[in-house]
Amino acid sequence: MSRDTSELTTTGFTVKAAMKNYRVVGPPPTGAFQERPAKPTTFRKFYDRGDLPIYLVHGTRPTITWKVDIETLDYNHYLPLFFDGLSETAHPYAFLARQGAEDLLDHGGDKILPVIPQLIIPIRNALNTRNHQVMCTTMKVLQHLVRSGDKVGEALVPYFRQILHIFDLFKDKKTKPSGVVRSHLQKPENIRELIPETLELLERTGGNDAFVHIKIMVPTYQSCVAYSP
After folding, report:
1. 108-128: per-residue pLDDT in tens?
2. Handedness of CA 58, 60, 64, 67 (dihedral sign)
3. Could you tell me which residues come within 8 angstroms of residue 219 by beta carbon, excluding any fewer than 6 positions away?
4. Quick one: CA torsion of 198, 205, 148, 47, rounded to 10 degrees?
5. Taking the model in full, what pTM does it have?
6. Measured distance CA(123)–CA(158) in Å, rounded
7. At 214, which helix (H) or strand (E)?
8. For residue 207, how many C-alpha atoms fall within 13 Å in the half-sphere facing its CB?
9. DSSP 3-state assignment of 181?
10. Which residues 6+ apart lie within 8 Å of 213 measured at CB?
11. Residue 158: which of 109, 202, 110, 224 has the closest Cα?
């Protein structure tokens, strides 16, 4: 009768781990960096129903056209809606959401600041997809948001705990080719370059408490602001 000579494996810290004929294997991957499919967005539903005041202009360089004057829009309704679409990866939704959000930020002025609390969940949801394309897009739009008004950076500081954990997770992750996102609108975007770039912008615009709140969520972050003694 032949014996089964196939290798036996077990996990560590078990009774079998001390046996000669067992090989101890490491724990399974945690999946921390694994992409997480986004839930269907409200932005997609509104666009498919024709309830958004935009339409796509096809061409070698696609653009969007607004059906109404942007400055007359209700920012409490439309800005969170376009930020919700940042989780999208499919065309044309991903392009429409990003371009629409940037257009709204360009023309929002004083109407942007009161809407900040409504933007946090869409930003967090987009970053939590762990999709490199979505993360790069969201960080670029977040930078645009911070630059859209004098007090916006400070208004974001209380919400760093909700959005910066992903920055800490991916800041040292080696970038594979899929981590470099190419867009027909901009130069290639690298997530490892966007993370420190975004954190530095958040610190510069977030006021005196920004660095402390960033440091809590990203312990290895070093201040980019020179303080006089």
Report:
1. 999 999 999 999 999 999 999
2. negative
3. 168
4. 40
5. 0.81
6. 14
7. helix 210-217
8. 10
9. strand
10. 157, 158, 160, 161, 206
11. 202
